[in-house]
């Protein structure tokens, strides 16, 4: 099975890799504030960490390669560096079909800005909105066959509410009109010593809200959500499932 997965990855790097296009309602930035004192003010770990509550557990959903196959990723542990507030040490797992591998690495915040949303309804739902941008490097376990490294950049837009940091929602459903709301988007390239060409990926905390700006002609239908048949064939017909695939199976009770 691992050999078949490697054959698939060899085919994903040819052409048409995922790429993001300009968002419909991009926030306007005011002042850039990336000094250590400002970065220390906001601990972004809860925005990336998979929820400890089963009812709220969500993976970061995305796509990979020229066929835009579904890709899942979770950050199981996120800890801010005790000396450098811009660096977060993370551990987690990624999944593409049967390929499920643990990884560890860092997310580094390069800039943090305060942003406004123009006429968006988001402006009235929180006292302040911010946008963090930076880079990341996630290395899969070297003990696993075909392991590689994810490197890339990210954008996280969030609100500072009385209850803490959170993503303010936009439209109620991903197929309705309006702003997509706040969230995190990771744009990545996967490389491996066993793979001759890099594979491009995109994953996000609210991927279904930005999918139409990533995948051309993804959704169809006027009275509810629908997925173009060619994408359903590669796995997107099951996008709504929220099984906790990253949880280690318990051993037998003796």
Secondary structure layout:
Blueprint: H1 2-12, E1 28-32, H2 36-41, H3 45-48, E2 60-64, E3 69-80, E4 87-96, E5 99-116, E6 128-140, E7 149-161, E8 164-166, E9 183-192, E10 195-204, H4 207-210, H5 229-232
Antiparallel strand pairs: 1-5, 2-3, 2-10, 3-4, 4-5, 5-6, 6-7, 7-8, 7-9, 9-10
Low-confidence stretches: 1-16, 20-26, 29-33
- Calculate the terminal CA-CA distance, rounded to whole Å: 31 Å
Strand content is: 35-45%
Extended strand count: 10
Task: Count every helix, treating DSSP H or I runs of 4 or more residues as helices.
Answer: 5
Read across the widest sheet, the strand sequence of neighbours is: 2-3-4-5-6-7-9-10
Helix content: 10-25%
Shape: globular
Give a quick account of the main beta sheet: strands, pairing sense, barrel closure.
8 strands, antiparallel, barrel
* SS content category: mainly beta
Q: Could you state the order of secondary-structure elements as H and E?
A: HEHHEEEEEEEEEHH
Mean pLDDT: 78
Q: What is the count of structural domains?
A: 1
Rounded Rg: 18 Å
């Amino acid at each position: 099975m691992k050999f078949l997965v490697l054959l698939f990855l060899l085919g994903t790097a040819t052409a048409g890799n995922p790429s993001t296009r300009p968002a419909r309602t991009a926030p306007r930035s005011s002042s850039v504030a990336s000094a250590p004192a400002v970065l220390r003010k906001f601990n972004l770990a809860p925005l990336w960490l998979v929820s400890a509550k089963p009812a709220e557990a969500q993976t970061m959903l995305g796509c990979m390669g020229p066929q835009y196959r579904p890709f899942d990723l979770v950050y199981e542990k996120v800890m801010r560096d005790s000396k450098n507030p811009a660096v977060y040490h993370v551990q987690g797992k990624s999944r593409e079909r049967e390929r499920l591998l643990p990884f560890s690495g860092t997310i580094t915040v390069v800039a943090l800005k305060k942003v406004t949303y123009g006429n968006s309804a988001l402006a009235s739902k929180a006292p302040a909105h911010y946008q963090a941008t930076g880079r990341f490097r996630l290395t899969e376990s070297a003990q696993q066959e075909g392991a590689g490294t994810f490197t890339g950049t990210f954008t996280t837009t969030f609100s500072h509410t009385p209850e803490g940091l959170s993503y303010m929602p936009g439209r109620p459903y991903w197929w309705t009109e309006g702003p997509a709301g706040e969230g995190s988007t990771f744009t990545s390239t996967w490389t491996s010593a066993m793979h001759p060409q890099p594979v491009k990926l995109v994953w996000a905390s609210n991927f279904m809200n930005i999918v139409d700006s990533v995948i051309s002609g993804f959704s169809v239908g006027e009275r509810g959500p629908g997925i173009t048949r060619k994408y359903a064939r590669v796995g997107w017909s099951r996008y709504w499932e929220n099984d906790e695939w990253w949880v280690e199976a318990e051993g037998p009770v003796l």
